[in-house]
User: Fold this.
Amino acid sequence: MAPHEAITLAKPCTYCGEEVVEPRGREWEHKGTYALMAWGRTRRAQAIVCEDVRVNGEVQKGSFVVRAPYCAQHAEGVKVFDAVKGKCLIVAVVVDLVAFALFYALTDARTMGWFANLSVLGVSLLFAVFIALVASALIGALIVRKKPELRGYPREGAGNWGLSIDGVRTDKGKHGVGPVRYFLRLRFVSPESAGRLLAAYPQAKVTKGEKLL
Assistant:
């Protein structure tokens, strides 16, 4: 569905279907952005391309808002996955820096020059971040295995219980002509919640799981 409007899901709870009673039950909100694109020609080759819209060198962005109701039990998000990812990144970066310091002290790395050393450090940091992300994903899978009730919470990206916001997909339309259109992708655990969204926004399209609705 088009992301330029505020998308508000109707009650009851998006995840379990229980009644939303304030103040403990509440409406969860997420705000996001996406790059605006348009068809045009490159300056040198005059090739027709679809690229980011820029004003004074800055990429122009559109925005979207998603609001979803939750009962008292599911009003608060799960922070364990973000905490695991953060700790894995810290540990991986610290270990990488210590390893590089030892490498620099115990080898002839000083003769390599500052640019070569910075290149080695940069590559090692990228590798450390990759290892941290893989480790956090594995740990997250183990946590879900130990606590099956967490399966309804997205481990990656934005979202809350039973709802995952997978970002904005850009449809460039006909080559060189367009129109360029943007579609916000949402995933639901509950078919009933997805059905309420479709009822409120008839322009929305089901791309998977249509038989369940």
